[in-house]
Amino acid sequence: MSELIHVNNLKVRFRVREMLHALLAPHAPAHIEAVSGVSFHINTGETFGLVGESGSGKTTLGRALIGLVPVNQGSIRFKGQELSGLNDRAYKPHRRDMTMMFQDPVGCLSPRLRVESILAQPFRIHGVRLKNTPEKIDELLSMVGLPPEFKNRYPHQLSGGQARRIGLARALALSPRLIIADEPTAGLDVSIQGDILNLLGKVQVESNVSVLAITHNLAVIRHISERMAIMYLGRFVEVGTTEDIFAHPSHPYTEALLAANPVPDPDAPHKRVELKGDVPSLMNRPEGCEFHSRCPFCRDKCQKEFPLLHEVAPGHHVMCHYPLTH
């Protein structure tokens, strides 16, 4: 299996202190690191899951890969070509091969355009001439399980599931190599979620497209991804195969997320890991391990020394001084 995208030590910073703020609070940080030194790769045809609470940096990371937010440090190699540091004009050709499904299925569709025009947008933006545009639109609708009549509808005439299908059809328009799916099942009923995930899997098999699935929903990741990463305060605290992480979570944060995930078996033993306090502010990161203020297993070393991401099993890495044993 060949490597499609390789990310190394990626950092994304946002300015939070302007001149007036600097005068009033001279010791406050000028920037926050929303993404802080993450490294990973995605192979061709693979789904890589990215899990974390709101504010962990998941969406920022996805937007950085496609060039919607600037990268401050690190490398993004896509199909062997370096993307970090490119301006918007130089990035544009690469966006034919990578695309994003945004979190709000209806809000990401222009309310003034019919579905036909929405699906034709990628071709116009990238200067792709079609021999038969209506035929191509019908083909895209068929790929996502919608009849041709839907091309005459406006977004407000679509249900959440139908809007998500239109978003997927738009993402597939230029036959991309990578789809960044940000909360692909957000706001959908459970039955509709299953339909969307099955559709995404079907499309992936047929087109051999790679997927970065961004979500807080562990059930979604377990259903569709081969490998995954757990993100906390802009860092990866655990990375490995989905099967291994679900079977042997090694970071207390991962354990807590899994324990909070409902299991459809009334006889299954239920573990509950209580996290202390709230997620710390990115403007005031804790000393030592950044998770120690919430960790039920915190020791003195955790409060003083920052842990490094290290391998606890083949292909399974964790950022913890005292990984959990099972």
Strand content: 15-25%
Strand order of the largest sheet: 6-7-8-3-9-10-12-11
Low-confidence stretches: none
Q: Please compute the radius of gyration using only Cα atoms.
A: 21 Å
Mean pLDDT: 89
Number of helices: 11
Helices and strands, in order, run as EHEEHEEHEHHHEHEHEEHHHEE
**Main β sheet profile:** 8 strands, mixed
Task: Explain the overall architecture.
With 326 residues, the protein is α/β, with parallel strands linked by helices. Helix content is 30%, strand content 23%. The chain has helices at 19-24, 58-65, 88-91, 115-125, 133-143, 160-172, 190-207, 218-224, 242-247, 252-260, 300-304; strands spanning 3-15, 31-43, 47-51, 73-78, 81-82, 98-101, 178-182, 210-215, 227-232, 235-241, 309-313, 316-319. A hairpin with a 2-residue loop joins strand 9 and strand 10 (235-241). Helix 4 packs parallel to helix 6 (160-172). The mean pLDDT is 89.
Short description:
The protein has helices at 19-24, 58-65, 88-91, 115-125, 133-143, 160-172, 190-207, 218-224, 242-247, 252-260, 300-304; strands at residues 3-15, 31-43, 47-51, 73-78, 81-82, 98-101, 178-182, 210-215, 227-232, 235-241, 309-313, 316-319. It is α/β, with parallel strands linked by helices and 326 residues long.
Helix and strand topology:
Layout: E1 3-15, H1 19-24, E2 31-43, E3 47-51, H2 58-65, E4 73-78, E5 81-82, H3 88-91, E6 98-101, H4 115-125, H5 133-143, H6 160-172, E7 178-182, H7 190-207, E8 210-215, H8 218-224, E9 227-232, E10 235-241, H9 242-247, H10 252-260, H11 300-304, E11 309-313, E12 316-319
Parallel strand pairs: 3-8, 3-9, 6-7, 7-8
Antiparallel strand pairs: 1-2, 1-4, 4-5, 9-10, 10-12, 11-12
Helix pairs in contact: 4-6, 6-7
